[in-house]
Specification:
There is one protein chain. The longest helix is centred in the middle third of the chain and has 18 residues. It contains eight helices and nine strands. The protein has one domain: LigB-like (Protocatechuate 4,5-dioxygenase, Chain B, 3-Layer(aba) Sandwich), CATH 3.40.830.10. A three-stranded parallel sheet has the order 6-1-7. A two-stranded parallel ribbon has the order 2-5. It has 274 residues and is α/β, with parallel strands linked by helices.
Amino acid sequence: MVPHPPTIIPEIGKGEELKVNSTILAMTKAMMLIAEAQPDTVVIISSHNTMYTDYFHISPGENAYGDFEKFGVKEVSFNVNYDSDFTSNLTKIAKEENLEAGTEGEIDKRLDHGTMVPLYFLRRAYYGKLPCKIVRVGLSGMPFVEHYRLGTLIKKTAEKLKKTVCVIGSGDLSHVLKKDGPYGYKPEGPIYDSRIMDVMERAAFGELLRFSEDFNRRASECGHRSFTIMAGCLDGRSVDARKLSYEGPFGVGYGVCTYLVKGPDLCRRFIAVD
């Protein structure tokens, strides 16, 4: 679970990133854990990837490029190789399970910033390289339980292919934490952030499904669905959950948590799956 404010990229923040140093340190630690795991594939779930009301978009193709030109820093760029085999199998499994997900309807092939901010820190953890393949997954307007179900299918795909896979749920928390923030203040903002950080710190993933969508809209969060898909990837697994940081000095909440799988735990299956 990581945030994705471009400001934390030093080339973009130009000193402003120092105001969220706890987030930077936590992101660095989280990505080092991924590098140490030496995964075959990293699945990045981003709230800024292509999104449809009734369909989960999974980025197609063999590779993709992206940069931060829209944030004034084109020289910070990425070329990634996709795990097309994983994507193909995930799409097939989703069809078998009657979940609307696949590679159709791509709007923009370029990497979005919700993908690139985590990649920036992951590449640093790999000392300037990205040896693993990437799978990009978008969100949908479907209920939270369908997002969780997609996560269980990502897990099923990894198990079928016998691949070591790490999953990044990329998303910020509430955007309405402060009156002087870019989106102003609403009382639901701090309430959401306190509640989501408590849930994620305890890895109480079943509680993600009990948030009200109307409340989440009022809280102006952007990461809940990303975190819910990520949680589904850990369904039926005992995890070592660690909260690494939380802060929101700019009026937007940033939280970082990590989860290391310890083994199977049938008591941690939060929806009915085959």
